[in-house]
């Protein structure tokens, strides 16, 4: 995760929301970890009518003016990366 | 206000790829919905916007984007109103 361009911090959580590893702006940031776990819990309840076949989401981005949080689930772990937005305003792809 | 919101929702839905949109007030009550989305998801959308805003309360409300391979759901709070747009990508 250290090699992601524009990365300024990351958190790796297990399925229960416990911090496995972290660095940069998100080092030992359990408050952010709790908030993200709350968001993921809410996500499972998003509108089934607008999303047929019970398909879920793969990636969650939270975009602020200068930076973004990119969150995804892989290998039963939750990966959270905080990164700067690219110069032209579009988020860099992970 | 309802007429204005109706017009905005029609405008949103006329964008390419947009399948539905929902607007929610600060209490999580549905102000309006267009397309396939049901009005029942209003509370969840409001709660998601609230939860994401806690991440950095000193900043303006963020744009929240949920994505999978074919669809995206974009949520943003502006003042007391939260909008959600479901689209195909």
From TrEMBL, chain A:
Its main location: other. SUPFAM superfamilies: Roadblock/LC7 domain. InterPro entries: LAMTOR4. One of its GO terms (molecular function) is guanyl-nucleotide exchange factor activity. It is found in: Lysosome. One of its GO terms (biological process) is cellular response to amino acid stimulus. GO terms for cellular component: lysosome; Ragulator complex. Keywords: Lysosome. Belongs to the LAMTOR4 family. This is Late endosomal/lysosomal adaptor and MAPK and MTOR activator 4.
From TrEMBL, chain B:
It is found in: Cytoplasm; Lysosome. GO terms for biological process: cellular response to amino acid stimulus; negative regulation of apoptotic process; positive regulation of TORC1 signaling. Keywords: Cytoplasm, Lysosome. Its main location: cytoplasm. Belongs to the LAMTOR5 family. One of its GO terms (molecular function) is guanyl-nucleotide exchange factor activity. Gene3D superfamilies: Dynein light chain 2a, cytoplasmic (3.30.450.30). This is Late endosomal/lysosomal adaptor and MAPK and MTOR activator 5. It holds the Pfam family LAMTOR5. It comes from the Eukaryota. GO terms for cellular component: lysosome; Ragulator complex.
């Amino acid at each position: 995760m250290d090699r992601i361009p524009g990365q300024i911090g990351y958190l790796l959580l297990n399925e229960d929301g416990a911090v496995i590893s972290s660095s940069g702006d998100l080092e030992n940031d359990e408050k952010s970890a709790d908030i993200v776990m709350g968001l993921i819990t809410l996500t499972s309840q998003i509108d089934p009518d607008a999303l047929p076949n019970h398909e879920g989401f793969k990636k969650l981005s939270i975009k602020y003016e200068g930076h973004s949080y990119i969150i995804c689930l892989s290998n039963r772990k939750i990966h959270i990366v905080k990164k700067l937005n690219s110069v032209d305003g579009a988020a860099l792809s992970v | 206000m309802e007429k204005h919101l109706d017009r905005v929702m029609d405008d949103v839905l006329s964008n390419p790829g947009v399948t539905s949109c929902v607007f929610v007030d600060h209490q999580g009550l549905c102000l309006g919905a267009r397309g396939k989305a049901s009005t029942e998801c209003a509370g969840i959308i409001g709660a998601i916007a609230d939860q994401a805003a806690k991440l950095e309360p000193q900043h303006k409300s963020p744009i929240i984007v949920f994505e999978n391979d074919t669809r995206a759901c974009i949520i943003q709070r502006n003042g007391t109103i939260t909008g959600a747009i479901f689209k195909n990508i």
